[in-house]
Amino acid sequence: MSLLPFQRASQIPTEAALTRWLVEGLWSEQAVGILGGEPKCCKSFLALDLAVSVASGAACLRRYPVRQPGRVLLFPAEDSLCVVRRRLQGICAAAAVDFDSLPVDVITAPVLRLDTEADRNRLTATVESLHPALLILDPMIRLHRLDENDACQIAGLLSFLRELQRRFHVAVVLVHHARKDSNGSRPGQALRGSSELHGWGDSNLFMRRRGQQLTLTTEHRAAASQDDIPLELTESGSALSLTVASGLAEALPPEASPLERVRQALEQLDGPASAQRIREKCGMRTASVCESLAELARQGLVVRDHKGYRLSRPEAA
Fold it and tell me: Which secondary structure element, helix H or strand E, spans residue 75, and what is its range?
């Protein structure tokens, strides 16, 4: 029986641990991941901005340098082709990029079902033919008829995309919806469906709309993340494009602390609740919920009995 390849840890080249960027700060080289957010928070605009930037070498959002430019393959499943063209032209105008020579290829098939072997084979053949640096699939819900909450079903689709990435050295951006009214959750936990989606990504981007303001959060497996980057959709004539907003970060209302989110969740629950029920209510990691409950109990604000956790109520005088 042949052995699996292996190497002594001390002999692994040190440069392998360094992050190499496709778009600095936003997407690592040959990364797979999710571009997520609630409906109508400009996810597709950001996906197209990534496409224009990688294809042209121009800075994404006029702020983030492209380190590895190359061809882009895009499947826009929800927007009409004329809308996609108009948006790409607008982004090119904002970035001072020649649209006519832009190496962005758009898949024009009306349907692409990546839960079927036939369409997987067609996409594989297309990627093999074009050798794009970046593949954008927008949105995930139009790519399958699987149960997004079933980890086993979703894992198969994600494994196929990971195989594409490794075989053809292509970065993959999968646009995906977050749950509605998910602003109280951590960005990755707000995604619809199985937690497999969040864990799959090497780089993830999350868009949020807070009132009239858009924010972007980045998340990377092997690099520092950034929270609440303020963005705005700007208009120049008939052209629309996203840009990093100057001076808006200070205007964003601060998010509640973990302690406050747990306390608010307990206020909204009827009677004592388990840590798991509280976690579901406030959209936090189990460890963070348990740490917050312990601190609130230490402060005398929460008590626990055989039914679960509840807020401490001062006895009436």
Answer: strand 72-76
